[in-house]
Amino acid sequence: MHAQPGVGIRPDTPVDAGAPAMRSAPDPPMAGPDQRHLPATSFRSRRSALSGAQRDTWERRWPELGLSLGDRDSVGGEPLDTRGWFGRAAPLVLEVGCGSGSSTLAMAKQEPGIDVIAVEVYRRGLAQLLCAVDRDRVANIRMIRGNGIEVLQRLIAPGSLIGVRVFFPDPWPKARHHKRRFLQPATMGMIADRLLPGGVLHAATDHPGYAGHIAEAGDGEPRLRRADPGAPLPISVARPTTKYETKAHEAGSTVTELIWVRPE
Ligand SMILES: C[S@@+](CC[C@H](N)C(=O)[O-])C[C@H]1O[C@@H](n2cnc3c(N)ncnc32)[C@H](O)[C@@H]1O
């Protein structure tokens, strides 16, 4: 079943005491030419019953480490106070569609000086990541349950990110569904706006058609240019191989890695 376009996910947890401060009245989403072409939704709804242990951890740690964007009345248009949320000022990476977070966890451990916000609509995936963060005492990951488009629009300030990661976004292979793809020209524009000068967009896909679509959208965004191979970047682009990627390899797919930089 597909989520209804334009409908936020059902809130499972209100915005909590430990989460960053927000205004109570929501602003309308950012207006502008990009707004008209943003994908209304780019995900399928999935069953997400949690195990008992996951539920316990969710109840214990989500108020501090997570934020649910489903409740439009409790999340305002003010950008996140990420310094308050992480308790420090550090370069910030946003990962959209983290799944169960295995890349998120490994990359955050490799780069303890960088803070990572992982966005996902799938609650069980977030619960898996939350349990791993709790178990391994990882200090530099926070999570948002919600649509990455809305997160970028409403919670991330322009020029605030050192990196955006989008690994294996849903390819929506049927032509009539291409408009649902997360990485589109308008999304590229919004990502470029949220990146700091020198910031990096790192995408990977195993779908050849989507790889071409992403390449065109990124290359068509005037505020981004392809990273020079071998040039130093402010964040790591060394991804661990996830279960999803292993399956893709087994099915004979080739993975395309796409990296852009917002010039200084
Ligand atoms: C194919 S999975 C890849 C998961 C993970 N990145 C990996 O490499 O294993 C794509 C994920 O993106 C999530 N997703 C799709 N559209 C999204 C959106 N607009 N905002 C947040 N998550 C999204 C889906 O729920 C799904 O878990």
From TrEMBL:
Transmembrane segments: none annotated. It comes from the Bacteria. S-adenosyl-L-methionine binds at residues 95, 120, 147, 170. GO terms for cellular component: tRNA methyltransferase complex. SUPFAM superfamilies: S-adenosyl-L-methionine-dependent methyltransferases (SSF53335). Pfam families: Methyltransf_4. Pathway: tRNA modification; N(7)-methylguanine-tRNA biosynthesis. Keywords: Methyltransferase, S-adenosyl-L-methionine, Transferase, tRNA processing. Catalyzes the formation of N(7)-methylguanine at position 46 (m7G46) in tRNA. This is tRNA (guanine-N(7)-)-methyltransferase. It comes from Mycobacterium helveticum. The gene is trmB.
